Amino acid sequence: MLMIFPVPPLPADNGGKIRMINILKGLSGYFQIDVIFFYKSKFVLKESLELQAYRGVNTIHAFQIKINFLNKIFALTSLIPYHINIYRNLKIYNEISDYLKKNQYKYIYLHSLRPIFFVLNNNDSNIILDQHNVDRNMWFLRSKSGTNFLDKIFSYANYLKYIDFERYIYKNLWGIVSVSKKDMYDTRKYAYPDVQKYWVVPNGVDVTFFTPQKRYKSNDLSYMNTHKDNTITLSYMGAMDFEPNIKAVIYIKSKLLPILNQNNKHNFRFLVIGRSPVKKIRLLERKNTDKIIVTGTIQDVRPYLMMTDIFIAPIAFGGGTKLKILQVMSMGISIVCSEHAIQGLDVMDGNQVFIANNKQAYIEKILSLANNKDLRTFIGGNAREFVKEKFNWSEITYNFGHSLLNEG
Predict the structure, then answer these.
(1) Does the pLDDT of residue 274 top 50, yes or no?
(2) pTM for the model
(3) pLDDT tens profile 111-134
(4) What is the pLDDT of residue 288?
């Protein structure tokens, strides 16, 4: 098998990379795997080259994608989706074509459509696309909730480009892997009968790593413990330079916290967990030092999650299943979230999570959890058992590996 990553899979510091690494680890127990990945900066190479230490991984090939201003202008004006267009590189295409002529693979496994042009003319392999998101759906949702008018126009144009592009590209695929049944059904409407095989391989979580322990080692969390006994800690987690996460944090800070802090029974504080916070996120802490804490980039999120009483996830758009939600559930922490945040999880409102679709519902459900520690324990415990049973990475990749192996 040849597995192709659009970015260096290590360090696994976001949801997409976590999925990539776990799929690689799982399938390397069934197949000998060669790896190709693309990178922009040489600073990221060292960790990803360590993939060769993984069982079943043979050779690793890294190609540098150089993107300049002219590349971006061409990509913007092309009929091909922007993020696919910037990967088009004739020199790399010729190198990979020569490589594929010398090396025969039964399967070529693509993590996203971005590098698709490099393998289009390979008729000897079964090409499998792992679509972390249904791209056309994600861009359509972004066009409805973009940061500004230009962002909405760009997103809607990309949505239209993806509709035509995916219909064309599906003729070259043998199989598609989706993260949820909904994503699979949405894709099959466009892809069938061109694509023969379909799998639902959900995102998972390492339930042995994300456990509800009382103490995790961390350099210094003493500043986190200076609060009153009636303090309820709310949190949100994600890359803080990614627009959906920025919007979620701003919503919690501006729409929920002012009302919650009118409650005399509790002192609410808000913990923002995640790397690369943009300026507007960093300023939240400076202006609200006793109410909002921004962690910035940290090596281990677990110590901070364990200080959380209630995790809030007002996620407005995105695709697939949210790894952050699975991690928090595995830690046994109670969650109040949008329906979009738990897409593909098949959870029950009031059992494993609380679902809220407007400001009033968020306030009511947060307060009901804040006022009842036993309820928080009940919801968190149910969430933990739920992901152990259905979203354990080792079980997910075991089942997928067997299924792929049985294809002959």
Answers:
(1) yes
(2) 0.87
(3) 999 999 999 877 789 999 998 888
(4) 67
Which of 159, 123, 121 minimizes the C-alpha distance to 142? 159
Taking the C-alpha atoms of residue 31 and residue 58, their distance in angstroms, rounded to an integer, is 10
Domain ranges of the chain: 2-204+393-405, 222-390
Encode pLDDT of 278-308 as tens digits.
999 999 887 766 689 999 988 889 999 999 9
Least confident of 135-139, 264-268, 269-273, 286-290: 286-290
**161 within 8 A of 90, measured Cβ to Cβ:** no
- In Å, what is the CA distance from 251 to each residue of 147, 245, 270, 369? 13, 10, 12, 19
What mean pLDDT is predicted for residues 248-259?
Answer: 94
Asked if CATH classification 3.40.50.2000 holds for the domain at 2-204+393-405, the reply, yes or no, is: yes
Let me know: does 31 contact 2? Beta carbons within 8 Å.
no
The three state secondary structure string of the chain is: CEEEECCCCCCCCCHHHHHHHHHHHHHCCCCCEEEEEEECCHHHHHHHHHHHHCCCEEEEEEEECCCCHHHHHHHHHCCCCHHHHCCCCHHHHHHHHHHHHHCCCCEEEEECCCCHHHCCCCCCCEEEEECCCCHHHHHHHHHHCCCCHHHHHHHHHHHHHHHHHHHHHHHHCCEEEECCHHHHHHHHHHHCCCCCEEEECCCCECCCCCCCCCCCCCCCCHHHHCCCCCEEEEEEECCCCCHHHHHHHHHHHHHHHHHHCCCCCCEEEEEEECCCCCHHHHHHHHHCCCCEEECCCCCCCHHHHCCCCEEEECCCCCCCCCHHHHHHHHCCCEEEECCHHHCCCCCCECCCEEECCCHHHHHHHHHHHHCCHHHHHHHHHHHHHHHHHHCEHHHHHHHHHHHHHCCC
- Count Cβ neighbours within 10 Å for each residue of 341-372 and write b for 16 or more, e otherwise: bbbbbebeeeebbbbbeeeeebbebbbebbee
Third-level CATH fold of 222-390? Rossmann fold (3.40.50)
Domains 2-204+393-405 and 222-390 share a fold: yes
Q: Which pLDDT band, with edges at 50, 70 and 90, does 318 fall under?
A: low
> Taking all residues of the chain, what is their mean pLDDT, rounded to a whole number?
88
| Amino acid 218: pLDDT | 46
Whole-angstrom Cα distance, residue 264 to residue 309?
A: 18
